[in-house]
């Protein structure tokens, strides 16, 4: 029994040894497998997932943003800059981080400044660089705020910002685009205004051409990146860099002459005040091309100022947005139609009574008189309503209506300015019997001062109306100049008719006993001038009828009449009684002759007979 037990004991020992060997082998195999898996995982991570993990890490610490394109400039016809972008910087800081890091540094090394001492040092330096626009205490107060991020101070120029950030890397400087208007309010009603937007970091047009041409001016943004603190979107100062450069916007060349625009704005504003008017507008057109050399209103604004200071009247552009009843300047349509259709000659005498009945309305002249023997030239020169209506009845409603359309009344000119009004002409099928007693003398229809000037541009340009335009060309970022196509011209009357009517209109400014026109104040010494006055009653809103005390005063003229270069259109809103726009025309026309060195007329305009004895 003892031997059997011994044998069993030896078998158990061999079995344990064998089992131990097997476990060791299995363990080694498992270890090898684990090592292989670990190595495979390492290879997978480093070889196949490296880029993805790197990109993920980069996304966590890098912020991508737009690199705003430089906005295009506005130029006048001589290349003078009227609006452009400049670069400025907005200072910012991470105050709580600054306090923490400087306190920790001081605790480790008492020789280093405390956070308070460091903030004072920064505040003194920034104040010394920026000046009184940014007091030292204001900087210190910002840096002491318990906040993660804060912009502070006014915009500073690039060099100043660089000096600050190089001296104190804890201060950041963020790009801002500033829209500059070197001519101040000159052409502000045309150009409008633009401002930098915090939303997308771009300058965006708010008003005028800045707004309507925003796409042309804006260009295409690039891409920039910056490092941010882990777990936040706070930009680490000094880490900004550009990945894809932006493409600048195109420049826009305007047809206006900024010197002339300045003069017209100044003189219009002065004369509106002198005449006791509520407002006024003026436009100067090239007689041949229809290009707008100046377009002004008596009220304007500073596009570089705070928008909260802008008034609705200042930022509006009534020269193209606000129509009015033109009065007697509209008589040129009847005159042109009568001459074009051979109904009358300038020297033909009309027996003009003191009033005329049209349907159920009785219309008189501006002055009481019996029957007057007026030449047709005299009907224009003395601005007789009765004589005009007598000839309009010969012309007929249909031919008159056709000419209204050809002269561009009741439709937009197509000028590139936003908010243009077409004015108003009653549809032909809605005319009543008395309508034709109003339209030929400029009541019952409305137009803008730009449309009014366009009518006389057709007379000055041999009977061809060229719709006005404001934009001369687009200048691409590579310098390529792309001219705007000229508008399609419209033949209104024959050259012979246009010459005849233009010569008749010279009578308006002549001054002679019994042959005096309505506006000798518009005459310019040494030059033949053609033009027409207008006075139209305003609507009295309290009764819906024509006012007996308020009116629009208008004038449209050609400089000079013997070789037309410019057309000037003027409107005064409710001037004091007896105040005409003619003296203002004289001042603007005189400036035009000097600025453009227009030669004197070869001879004075011949005296025309307005009233026979």
UniProtKB/TrEMBL annotation:
GO MF annotation: an example: penicillin binding
Write the Enzyme Commission number(s) for this entry.
2.4.1.129
Q: Which domain of life is it from?
A: Bacteria
Q: Which residues form the Penicillin-binding protein transpeptidase domain?
A: 280-589
Q: Where is the Penicillin-binding protein dimerisation domain?
A: 68-226
The record's subcellular locations are: Membrane
Q: Name one GO cellular component term.
A: plasma membrane
EC class of the enzyme, as a word: transferase
Per the UniProt entry, what are the Gene Ontology biological process annotations, in alphabetical order? cell wall organization
Which of UniProt's keywords are assigned here? Glycosyltransferase, Membrane, Transferase
- Which family is this protein grouped under? Belongs to the transpeptidase family.
* Annotated protein name in UniProt: Penicillin-binding (Cell division related) protein
Native source species? Saccharopolyspora erythraea (strain ATCC 11635 / DSM 40517 / JCM 4748 / NBRC 13426 / NCIMB 8594 / NRRL 2338)
Q: Which gene encodes it?
A: ftsI
């Amino acid at each position: 029994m003892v031997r059997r037990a011994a044998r069993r004991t030896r078998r158990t020992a061999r079995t344990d040894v064998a089992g131990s060997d097997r476990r060791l082998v299995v363990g080694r195999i498992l270890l090898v497998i684990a090592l292989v898996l670990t190595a495979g995982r390492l290879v997978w991570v480093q070889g196949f997932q490296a880029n993805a993990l790197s990109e993920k890490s980069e996304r966590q610490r890098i912020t991508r943003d737009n690199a705003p394109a430089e906005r295009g400039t506005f130029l006048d016809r001589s290349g003078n800059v009227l609006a452009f972008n400049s670069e400025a910087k907005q200072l910012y800081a991470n105050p709580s981080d600054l306090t923490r890091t400087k306190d920790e540094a001081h605790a480790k090394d008492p020789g280093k400044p405390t956070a308070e001492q460091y903030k004072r040092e920064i505040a003194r330096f920034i104040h010394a660089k920026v000046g009184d626009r940014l007091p030292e205490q204001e900087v210190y107060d910002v840096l002491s705020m318990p906040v993660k991020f804060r912009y502070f101070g006014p915009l500073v120029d690039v060099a100043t910002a660089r000096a600050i950030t190089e001296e104190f890397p804890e201060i950041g400087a963020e790009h801002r685009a500033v829209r500059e208007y070197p001519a101040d309010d000159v052409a502000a009603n045309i150009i409008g205004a633009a401002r930098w937007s915090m939303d997308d970091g771009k300058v965006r047009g708010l008003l005028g051409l800045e707004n309507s041409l925003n796409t042309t001016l804006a260009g295409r943004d690039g891409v920039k990146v910056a490092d941010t603190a882990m777990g936040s979107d706070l930009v680490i100062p000094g880490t900004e860099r550009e990945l894809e450069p932006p493409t600048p916007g195109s420049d826009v060349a305007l047809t206006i002459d900024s010197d002339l625009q300045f003069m017209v704005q100044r003189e219009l504003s002065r004369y509106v005040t002198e005449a006791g008017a509520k407002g006024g507008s003026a436009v100067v057109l090239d007689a041949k091309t229809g290009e707008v050399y100046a377009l002004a209103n008596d009220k304007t604004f500073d596009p570089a100022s705070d928008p909260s200071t802008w008034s609705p009247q200042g930022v509006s552009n009534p020269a193209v947005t606000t129509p009015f009843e033109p009065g007697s300047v509209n008589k040129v349509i009847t005159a042109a139609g009568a001459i074009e259709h051979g109904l009358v000659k300038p020297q033909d005498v009309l027996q003009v009574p003191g009033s005329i009945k049209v349907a159920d309305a009785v219309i008189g002249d501006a002055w009481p008189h019996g029957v007057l023997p007026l030449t047709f030239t005299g009907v224009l020169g003395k601005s007789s309503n009765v004589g005009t209506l007598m000839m309009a009845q010969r012309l007929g409603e249909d031919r008159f209506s056709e000419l209204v359309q050809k002269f561009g009344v009741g439709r937009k000119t197509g000028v590139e300015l936003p908010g243009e009004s077409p004015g108003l002409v009653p549809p032909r099928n809605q005319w009543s019997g008395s309508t034709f007693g109003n339209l030929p003398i400029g009541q019952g229809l409305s137009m803008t001062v730009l449309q009014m000037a366009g009518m006389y541009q057709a007379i000055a340009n041999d009977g061809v109306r060229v719709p006005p335009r404001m934009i001369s060309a687009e200048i691409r970022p590579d310098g390529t100049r792309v001219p705007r196509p000229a508008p399609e011209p419209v033949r209104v009357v024959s050259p012979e008719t246009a010459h005849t009517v233009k010569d008749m209109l010279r009578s308006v400014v002549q001054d002679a006993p019994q042959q005096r026109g309505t506006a000798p104040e518009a005459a310019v010494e040494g030059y033949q001038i053609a033009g027409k006055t207008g006075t139209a009653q305003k609507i009295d809103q309290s009764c819906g009828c024509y006012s007996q005390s308020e009116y629009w005063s208008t004038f449209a003229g050609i400089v000079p009449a013997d070789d037309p270069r410019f057309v000037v259109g003027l409107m005064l809103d409710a001037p004091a009684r007896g105040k005409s726009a003619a003296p203002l025309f004289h001042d603007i026309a005189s400036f035009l002759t000097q600025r453009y060195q227009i030669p004197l007329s070869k001879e004075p305009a011949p005296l025309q007979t307005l009233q026979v004895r």
